[in-house]
Amino acid sequence: GKEMASIPFIGCCFAGFCAAGIYSASAHYPGYALELGLGSASGALMITCCMVGNPLSKILVGILSDTIGTVKACSLMYLTTVGALTALMLAPADNRIVALGAAFFTGFICCMGNVGVSLVTRYVFGVERFQSVFAYVAIFPCLGTAVMTPIYGYMYDFTRSYRAAMGVALGLAILGFVFMILACRTRKKVDRR
User: Fold this and answer.
1) CA distance 41 to 55
2) Going by fewer Cβ within 10 Å, which terminus of the chain is more open, N or C?
3) Phi, psi (deg, nearest 5) at residue 114
4) In 3D, which of 63, 56, 57, 46 has the Cα closest to residue 19?
5) Which residue from 89, 65, 86, 84 is spatially nearest to 75, judged by alpha carbons?
6) C-alpha distances out from residue 160 to 40, 68, 155, 157, 163, Å
7) Ordered alpha helix ranges (H), the chain
8) pTM of the complete model
9) What's residue 3's pLDDT?
């Protein structure tokens, strides 16, 4: 329908794309750990920390959505990720605690690629239209993963550093947040019946 050509729909789609694209950066944590002088074991532990943040964020965003509202809960997840990626990008060499802590909190973006984007889609389009709209929105997190995972690898190939890739992930976190807010702020322009 006409909601597929709306700003809120585009916002939901790109928020999901960005969230999954950010999480794809975690596949390159072992290489980034080596670049930071932390060793491959620390890189594997960074992935583990990120994976622990993943289910915790999914539970947390659901609880927060019920208590403080969808927009605030999802904003908190995006902004936590922005902070974590900033710390990870600026992480000093040989500082394992910063790298592991930041990796844990980057796992918080996982909830936005599935639970968060479904909450936002329901918030924007209403319960009645959720199913028909989310069927299309759900494609974009899959595309985010498929597109961004190799892009991060190519960025390393061209620059010989993962910092640029972490910078792109940070940019995606900011863009995803902006698209989510855009979708939520323009929701009144959508027929929610």
Assistant:
1) 22
2) C
3) -135, -70
4) 57
5) 65
6) 17, 43, 8, 6, 9
7) 7-23, 29-35, 40-68, 70-89, 96-106, 110-111, 117-137, 139-159, 163-185
8) 0.91
9) 72
